[in-house]
Amino acid sequence: MPKFFILSFTLIFFYEVNAFAYLDPGTGSIILQALAGAIAAIWSFFYYYKKKIKDFFKKFKKENKEDKKKDSDQL
Protein backbone atom coordinates (compact mmCIF):
# COMPACT_ATOMS: atom_id res chain seq x y z
CA MET A 1 0.00 0.00 0.00
CA PRO A 2 2.75 2.59 0.79
CA LYS A 3 4.35 1.91 -2.59
CA PHE A 4 1.09 2.94 -4.26
CA PHE A 5 1.08 6.30 -2.40
CA ILE A 6 4.73 6.96 -3.23
CA LEU A 7 4.12 6.19 -6.89
CA SER A 8 0.97 8.36 -6.94
CA PHE A 9 2.78 11.24 -5.26
CA THR A 10 5.64 10.98 -7.74
CA LEU A 11 3.37 10.94 -10.77
CA ILE A 12 1.14 13.78 -9.57
CA PHE A 13 3.85 16.22 -8.50
CA PHE A 14 6.68 15.47 -10.91
CA TYR A 15 4.85 14.87 -14.18
CA GLU A 16 5.19 17.82 -16.56
CA VAL A 17 2.20 19.22 -18.37
CA ASN A 18 2.27 22.28 -20.63
CA ALA A 19 0.02 25.05 -19.35
CA PHE A 20 0.00 27.23 -22.49
CA ALA A 21 -0.19 30.27 -20.21
CA TYR A 22 0.91 33.78 -21.10
CA LEU A 23 2.09 36.40 -18.65
CA ASP A 24 1.77 39.93 -19.96
CA PRO A 25 4.82 42.20 -19.43
CA GLY A 26 2.64 44.41 -17.19
CA THR A 27 1.94 41.54 -14.81
CA GLY A 28 5.23 42.03 -12.98
CA SER A 29 4.54 45.69 -12.32
CA ILE A 30 1.04 44.87 -11.03
CA ILE A 31 2.53 42.33 -8.63
CA LEU A 32 5.10 44.89 -7.43
CA GLN A 33 2.40 47.53 -6.93
CA ALA A 34 0.25 45.12 -4.96
CA LEU A 35 3.24 44.17 -2.82
CA ALA A 36 4.16 47.82 -2.19
CA GLY A 37 0.55 48.63 -1.30
CA ALA A 38 0.33 45.69 1.10
CA ILE A 39 3.59 46.68 2.82
CA ALA A 40 2.41 50.30 3.15
CA ALA A 41 -0.95 49.21 4.57
CA ILE A 42 0.65 46.88 7.12
CA TRP A 43 3.20 49.53 8.14
CA SER A 44 0.57 52.23 8.62
CA PHE A 45 -1.68 49.84 10.58
CA PHE A 46 1.09 49.01 13.07
CA TYR A 47 2.30 52.63 13.23
CA TYR A 48 -1.18 53.86 14.11
CA TYR A 49 -1.76 51.32 16.88
CA LYS A 50 1.79 51.67 18.21
CA LYS A 51 1.13 55.39 18.65
CA LYS A 52 -2.22 54.74 20.39
CA ILE A 53 -0.60 52.25 22.78
CA LYS A 54 2.26 54.65 23.57
CA ASP A 55 -0.19 57.48 24.24
CA PHE A 56 -2.24 55.20 26.49
CA PHE A 57 0.76 54.35 28.68
CA LYS A 58 2.05 57.93 28.67
CA LYS A 59 -1.24 58.96 30.26
CA PHE A 60 -0.59 56.62 33.20
CA LYS A 61 3.02 57.74 33.51
CA LYS A 62 1.90 61.37 33.56
CA GLU A 63 -0.69 60.62 36.27
CA ASN A 64 1.97 58.87 38.38
CA LYS A 65 4.28 61.88 38.12
CA GLU A 66 1.45 64.21 39.16
CA ASP A 67 0.56 61.96 42.11
CA LYS A 68 4.18 61.89 43.28
CA LYS A 69 4.40 65.66 42.94
CA LYS A 70 1.24 66.10 45.04
CA ASP A 71 2.59 63.72 47.66
CA SER A 72 5.89 65.60 47.88
CA ASP A 73 4.07 68.94 48.09
CA GLN A 74 2.02 67.69 51.05
CA LEU A 75 5.16 66.94 53.06
Poorly predicted tracts of residues: none
Count every beta strand, where a strand is a DSSP E run of 2 or more residues: 0
How much of the polypeptide forms β-strand, as a percent range? Answer: under 5%
- Helix/strand order, N-terminal first: HH
How many strands, what sense, and barrel or not for the largest sheet? none
Mean pLDDT figure: 82
End-to-end Cα distance: 86 Å
| Helicity, as a percent range | over 70%
Look at the helices and sheets and give the structural class.
mainly alpha
Radius of gyration: 30 Å
Please report the number of helical segments. 2
General shape = elongated
Topology of helices and strands:
Layout: H1 2-14, H2 26-74
Molecular structure report:
It is a single chain. With 75 residues, this protein is an all-alpha fold. The chain contains two helices and no strands. The radius of gyration is 30 Å and the shape is elongated. The mean pLDDT is 82.
In short:
The protein has two helices and no strands. It has 75 residues and is mainly alpha-helical.
List keywords for this structure.
75 residues, mainly alpha, 2 helices, 83% helix
